[in-house]
Amino acid sequence: CKNQNSQIGSSENATEQKSDPLPSWNEVKSKQNIIAYVEDVTNSESANFIPVSERIATFDNDGNLWSEQPAYFQLFFAIDRVKEMAVDHPEWKTQEPFKSVLENDMASLAKQGEHGLVKLVMATHSGNTIEEFDANVKEWIKTAKHPTKNVGFDELVYQPMLELLQYLRANDFKTYVVSGGGVDFMRAIVTEIYGIPAEQIIGSRITTAYEYKDGKAVIKRTPGLDFNDDKEGKPLNIQKIIGKKPVFSSGNSDGDLQMMQYAASNSYKSFMLYVHHTDEVREWAYDRESHIGRLDKGLDQAMSDGWTVIDMKNDWKVIYPFELE
Amino acid sequence: CKNQNSQIGSSENATEQKSDPLPSWNEVKSKQNIIAYVEDVTNSESANFIPVSERIATFDNDGNLWSEQPAYFQLFFAIDRVKEMAVDHPEWKTQEPFKSVLENDMASLAKQGEHGLVKLVMATHSGNTIEEFDANVKEWIKTAKHPTKNVGFDELVYQPMLELLQYLRANDFKTYVVSGGGVDFMRAIVTEIYGIPAEQIIGSRITTAYEYKDGKAVIKRTPGLDFNDDKEGKPLNIQKIIGKKPVFSSGNSDGDLQMMQYAASNSYKSFMLYVHHTDEVREWAYDRESHIGRLDKGLDQAMSDGWTVIDMKNDWKVIYPFELE
Ligand SMILES: [Ca+2]
Ligand SMILES: [Ca+2]
């Protein structure tokens, strides 16, 4: 029972005996800041105490809870789907962006920019039912391997962040994913890994349509963008779906800046956390100039406003769960 | 602790000593159906057992959890707002639909149809921040009185439905409001009455915009329809926001039919519940011909598919909580 645990955790005597809630973190500033914050706002004697109903924590996904290099993992899914679906689409052999994908010409695909990507996503993410798409993703994740790490994409989640999610939940925070990635793609994969149920995953999505035929209700995925959950889309979607301002917000790029600002505007004491990719050996190193997960304005505001920035290389003992084995 | 309660409730010996979970219901078919369903799907020995994570219950609001006659309560809010805002809008004295509202000419307002209503809603529901709107609604509900019942609108909730919500939650169902009404209007009023947090209230909404100025993040309400949470909009929004099919669905009009069909398509045993307004003395009596809350096709499908229909007059001992006093 959650409540019992948190009561034990907050009693004074227990403090010293408590086991480390973030064992994969070095004893660094970021870890100290997080723990000091959580202990402060969950202490009913503190002026900064936050009632349980307002303990909303929002986490970006790509590059924040799992890796995002050399491309968003959802793009690898789209590419693999094109190759599978190509049997029924002989025309793709000569049609871009499918031609490039089928010829494994990633340079040519990249040149087609966002327009090419949207075509790719619509072709592979629509035209089926919610259940069919969910099954596609679940089937794919079983065997798909990351091109350079050579492990499953779902193994490339950040162990220290899994511990952070768990730590927050143990302190009665409600943890949400708020990502630019596709919501149904994430729901199919990350629910169990993160311990976050479908209804606490917010993301971008394509349009859908309701059909009722022969006594059967079905929701079909249709080719159109319903919502882009990025930049100002993040606070807007948080207000729309959660209806509360987060008190804890975590991201890794400029696409999270508005969500950070929104959390920072909370009248309760809030915590803004940026993951800075500084580890080119164990993960990847990139920030201000990166085409994926650019962290530039966000880093400036984090520094000027005193938000906490995780230095992956120095702050984390391990990056991935499999390093613990 | 919820889990402990539900364990006690499901142990065999406790069954006979349990107090009545639905005391404001007569011993009728609808009550028996509800209890038989809940006991079946929460019994881990039953073939129909539903895991806690899938126990999603969705409730329409107007005419289902509170009354909706002689007009949706949100319309009374809009009318009262027009009268308040008129000081700053002298032009409204000659401009429709405001002119009719200011002259208390409801017949003339009704003649302007949906077009007039949309104008009224946009003028009174947009142009401010989320917090300002929330404060407006909370201020209004404190003193506003229903035109014929002469009590606060928030007193016109259905006592038997409050008991049902509580009964479902005691059995680890997650209860949601899924309404055609405005989501932020409902969040400001019903959260405490229903025991349903903001993040479990889904509704129609106008568009919003994010602003960041002088280090302050603000969400503004703008004049445009973002989502109409009615008819097929209900299952679409449920899939979008919850990402799970309901197993329990309750409504009172044809606007809920698609949500009912969606729940009926659940592979888990599901329960579809219609409230039929049959009590012209204590509440109102209306169905197939009503301009508000029309229940026609829904009633047909409920009868042909064996869904449970509440006969308000005969099934409920009391309608409103104040009748208990
Ligand atoms: Ca990211
Ligand atoms: Ca209704």
From TrEMBL, chains A, B:
Q: State whether keyword Phosphoprotein applies.
A: no
Q: Which domain of life is it from?
A: Bacteria
Keywords noted in UniProt: Hydrolase, Signal
A GO term, aspect molecular function: hydrolase activity
Q: Which SUPFAM superfamilies match?
A: HAD-like (SSF56784)
Cite a single Pfam family from the UniProt record.
HAD
- UniProt-listed InterPro entries: HAD-like_sf, HAD_sf
Provide the protein name.
HAD family hydrolase
Originating species: Lutibacter holmesii
